[in-house]
Amino acid sequence: KQEVTQIPAALSVPEGENLVLNCSFTDSAIYNLQWFRQDPGKGLTSLLLIQSSQREQTSGRLNASLDKSSGRSTLYIAASQPGDSATYLCAVRDGGSQGNLIFGKGTKLSVKP
Amino acid sequence: DADVTQTPRNRITKTGKRIMLECSQTKGHDRMYWYRQDPGLGLRLIYYSFDVKDINKGEISDGYSVSRQAQAKFSLSLESAIPNQTALYFCATSDRTGTVRETQYFGPGTRLLVL
User: Hey, which residues does A33 pair with through a beta bridge?
Assistant: First the structure.
């Protein structure tokens, strides 16, 4: 059974710092991996999607990498801003679950001004 | 207007009551999903539907039922609510872009409290 783990569970950094969020998964048979952002009282917003054949994706200050063989992904946020404060969720589209998404529990990020 | 809407946004009910959560989408997607989110447990899949005639159980379907009334509407029912069904419920949609590119679009969530 696929399991997705995110470390750390919470992170607090001063504004301007670069930071890395980590995600690991137990079964490398995935179709893709996605990073979502969740704001309090709101739904999830997809940030980046990395297909299983890709190594990384970039969007603005965000860069996500995927090492499928080792079951790891990182989300790199450059020059963090208070507006980046949110919970970040990692999810894999699992090959063994009819392609459904399996989510990690998230990392709650707080960027202090 | 939001592409995926959920009603109600907040609901308080009592143990034993039947309640329905509704989801509508204007994205024209075939696939729809219901998740629940609990602190410390992440999002878990309750039911999913790949089209109007296709309904599938997810990881935690016990105590829930669903109805896909149309391509755009997917409802989740709690036949007899119990306190451990207190959670944040999300509806999501996706299209048939193929599993390597397919992503999901989430509604704003319904916060349910069962007393």
Answer: A50, A92
Interface test with A, best of B24, B99, B101, B105 (most A CBs within 10 A): B99
Contacts of B6 (CB under 8 A, 6+ apart): B21, B22, B23, B89, B90, B91, B107, B108, B109, B110
Segment B21-26 mean pLDDT? 97
Separation CA A53–CA A22 (nearest Å): 19
Q: Do A43 and B107 touch (CB under 8 A)?
A: yes
For all residues of chain A together, what is the average pLDDT?
A: 93
Residue A92: which pLDDT band, with cuts at 50, 70 and 90? very high
Residue of A nearest to B94 (CA): A100
How far, in Å, are A18, B31, B58 from residue A101 at the CA level?
28, 13, 11
Whether the predicted pLDDT of A78 surpasses 70: yes
- Amino acid occupying residue A17: E
- Who's near B18: CB < 8 A, 6+ residues apart? B77, B78, B79, B80, B81
B25 touches chain A (CB under 8 A): no
* Percentage of residues of chain A with pLDDT beyond 70: 99
